[in-house]
Amino acid sequence: MANIIEKCQRPALIMAHNKTLAAQLYNEMKNFFPNNAVEYFVSYYDYYQPEAYIPQSDSYIEKDAQINEQIDLLRHSATRALLERKDVIVVASVSCIYGLGAPELYLQMSFKLEKGKTYSRREVMQKLIELQYQRMDLDFSRGGFRVRGENIDVFPSHYQDRAWRISFWDDEVEKIYEFDYLTGEKTKNLNEIIIFANSHYVTPRPTLEQAVNLIQDELSERVEKFKLGNMVVESQRIAQRTNFDIEMIMETSSCKGIENYSRYLSGRKEGEPPPTLFEYLPKDALLFVDESHVTVPQIG
């Protein structure tokens, strides 16, 4: 695989049938291609319990999941590399065929800051909030930002131990540099940065409002169907749950389990496949299916 990638000089996706094999291939590719963007993309759930409803006892079991922050970081790093670089090798498990935010929306929501140009500090902070970054004045960590005087510190979603500092002089970006978030030591001067969203499901406001209208339309259909079937409790439960999610989406642009609404957020029609990691790949990318006798049955 490494020999073909080296000769073809194209981006590549290597699919493995489990996380362990993917991690082994990832380390080998890092050694073969030390100067390339070798990325790792697997499921980020340490624990996952789907939501369920038991009508006999009117019991609702809420969806519960524990996300591995380290793997989430690597997933963001992979999608960012695919959008910014050509020398990318992504080693993935079969989770790469599962739904992900649409790449065009993910790219559309990113924004660039350049040294010497003028930006409103308030608008930059508002944009960071729209991208699901949280303001953190004390516990500064990945996916957060803080404001200190004329400086805005941003901890990108794809970095583990480095952050960016944007220094303003009035509304002009005077300097941008990378620093160690623990020691504060400056590591690199930068002329420009591109800030990507802290979630793959971040969506522009007009698209979000359109998606909410479609969710409400389907909700009305489902509630009516339950009522016609004399399933009153079920109709009340789905209306209560969905309306709560809609309220959260309108207020915060997200909700728990927002991936359940990915079809509406991406504008797909009923029955169409959702966006996946494959849509982040350029058209000339190579695909390798490692140990295909095990991997293919998992995706077929």
Automatic annotation (TrEMBL):
Domain Helicase ATP-binding: 1-131
Cross-referenced Pfam families: UvrB_inter (PF17757)
Cellular compartments per GO CC: excinuclease repair complex
Source organism, top-level taxon: Eukaryota
Record GO terms (molecular function): ATP binding; ATP hydrolysis activity; DNA binding
PROSITE patterns linked: HELICASE_ATP_BIND_1
Keywords associated with the record: ATP-binding, Cytoplasm, Nucleotide-binding
The keyword ATP-binding is annotated on this UniProt entry: yes
Annotated InterPro entries: Helicase_ATP-bd, P-loop_NTPase, UvrB, UvrB_inter
GO biological process, alphabetically ordered: nucleotide-excision repair
Keyword Magnesium attributed: no
Name of the molecule in the record: Helicase ATP-binding domain-containing protein
Lineage, highest ranks first: Eukaryota, Metazoa, Placozoa, Uniplacotomia, Trichoplacea
